[in-house]
Write a structure and sequence with these properties.
heterodimer; A: six-stranded mixed sheet; 46% strand
Chain lengths: 115, 110
C-alpha cells in the first residue's frame, strides 16, 4: 500500500517568509509525528498527534512553528517568519496506534532551505 | 546530558567482517528500544526492536543492558549494502515520543 507522503520534496524560501509543509500519513494510522533533521544531527522531535487527543507540542522550538491535523489524517506544519537556522529536512512519520512500542513509518521528508 | 548518545564514526568495515557499536541512554525509566537504519538522503526505516532478552535477525544481533543503560548492534558478515547510518532510538518514558541518537555511520569497504 501507499506509504507516508510529504510535499513539497524541496522548498527554498527567503528569510522572513512563511512556509507550509504537508504530510499524508498511511491510511488508518492514528498517530502522526513531525521531526526535523539538521545536517549531521539526529532527529529532533517537534510535535505528535494522537487520534483526537490534544497534540504534544513540547518539541516545537519557538512560537513561529505550528502544526495542525485535519480530520485525523493530513497534517500541515507551518513555519512563520523563517530564519536561516530553520534550514533542515522535515520528516513526518505515522504509526498504527499512538503507542511508542509501535513502528514509526517515515515519509521521504521536505528539504527546507532558507536563504 | 543527551537522552541518547552514539559515536558517529564512521566505522569503516571490510566486507565480510563483523562490526559492533553501542549507544547509551540517560533515562533509566526508558521503556522501548529500537535500531533504525537511514541510508544517505533517505528516510529512517525500522531495522529491529531490541528486547530485554536480546534478539537476532539474520546477520544482525541487538542487545540491551539495562544496568549500564546501553544497547548494542552487531552486524556479522558485512555486505556492501549494509553501508548506512544506524540510529539508536529510545522511548524515554512517560510519553509516546521517541528520542533518536545521531547515528553510527557504517561504511563497508570492498
Amino acid at each position: 500500500g501507499a506509504g507516508v507522503s510529504q510535499s513539497p520534496s524541496n522548498k527554498v524560501t527567503e528569510k522572513g517568509k512563511d512556509v507550509e509543509l504537508r504530510c499524508d500519513p498511511i491510511s488508518g494510522h492514528t498517530a502522526l509525528y513531525w521531526y526535523r533533521q539538521s545536517l549531521g544531527q539526529g532527529l529532533e522531535f517537534l510535535i505528535y498527534f494522537q487520534g483526537n487527543s490534544a497534540p504534544d507540542k513540547s518539541g516545537l522550538p519557538s512560537d513561529r512553528f505550528s502544526a495542525e491535523r485535519t480530520g485525523g489524517s493530513v497534517s500541515t506544519l507551518t513555519i512563520q517568519r523563517t530564519q536561516q537556522e530553520d534550514s533542515a529536512v522535515y520528516l513526518c512519520a505515522s504509526s498504527l496506534v499512538p503507542d511508542y512500542s509501535y513502528e514509526q513509518y517515515f515519509g521521504p521528508g521536505t528539504r527546507l532551505t532558507v536563504t | 546530558r543527551k537522552e541518547v548518545e552514539q559515536d558517529p564514526g564512521p566505522f569503516n568495515v571490510p566486507e565480510g567482517a563483523t562490526v559492533a557499536f553501542n549507544c547509551t541512554y540517560s533515562n533509566s525509566a526508558s521503556q522501548s528500544f529500537f535500531w533504525y537504519r537511514q541510508d544517505c538522503r533517505k528516510e529512517p526505516k525500522l531495522l529491529m526492536s531490541v528486547y530485554s532478552s536480546g534478539n537476532e535477525d539474520g546477520r544482525f544481533t541487538a542487545q540491551l543492558n539495562r544496568a549500564s543503560q546501553y544497547i548494542s548492534l552487531l552486524i556479522r558478515d558485512s555486505k556492501l549494502s549494509d553501508s548506512a547510518t544506524y540510529l539508536c532510538v529510545v522511548n524515554p518514558g512517560g510519553n509516546n515520543r521517541l528520542a533518536f541518537g545521531k547515528g553510527n555511520q557504517v561504511v563497508v569497504i570492498p
